[in-house]
Amino acid sequence: CTDVAARGIDIQELPYVVNMTLPDADQIEDYIHRIGRVGRADRMGLAVSLVSTVKEKVWYHKCKNFRGQGCTNTKTLTSGGCCKWYDERDLLARVRARLGGEAEIRSMEESADGFRLPGGMGEGVTYGEMRKDVTQVSEHVIALAPAVKELATLEVQ
What does the function comment of this entry state (predicted)? Predict the structure, then answer.
């Protein structure tokens, strides 16, 4: 996903988003917004982020026009180069803190169960399809009706 798609794009019935890397620390809000693009309108969605468990030295070119073509300068930015150390474990901890610890983390070794969702959340659900449990939504709307009616009355007073 590019920065263009980070905000303001709505792709109907998008069942999955796979992030090949986590964003820089200053882009975590865009990342959270992006992963929220799946599973909208009572549809089940799944966002997967591939996260390295070790620090990685990655290309980081500040010059957007150049895009690193032909670059061989593997020194870090602080040494005048075009690379930086990327610590996705730290970035993931920041994302989890922002989400209130809600993000589930699984390693490849722990995923022999085929990456099943916890507590049977995904059982009987096909990603991208509408939830079949509309009675729960209807009950919730009915339960909220008195509060909405009271707020509407207060609005005109």
Answer: RNA helicase.
Q: Is the pLDDT of residue 67 over 80?
A: no
Enumerate domains of the chain plus CATH numbers. Answer: 3-156 (3.40.50)
Q: What is the pTM of this model?
A: 0.58
Residue 57's beta-bridge partner residues? 85
Cα–Cα distance between 73 and 81 in angstroms, integer? 5
Amino acid at 108: M
Q: Tell me: the pLDDT tens digits for 70-100?
A: 888 889 989 988 888 989 889 888 888 888 8
Give the Cα separation of 128 and 126 in Å (integer). Answer: 6
- Would you list the DSSP string of 42-98? TB--EEEE---SS-EEEE--S-TTTTTTT----SBGGGTSSEEEE-HHHHHHHHHHH
DSSP-derived 3-state class of residue 4: helix
3-state secondary structure of 122: coil
Q: Which residue do the tokens 């997967």 mark? A: 48
pLDDT above 80 for 122? no
Average pLDDT over residues 147-157: 77
**pLDDT at 27 > cutoff 80:** yes
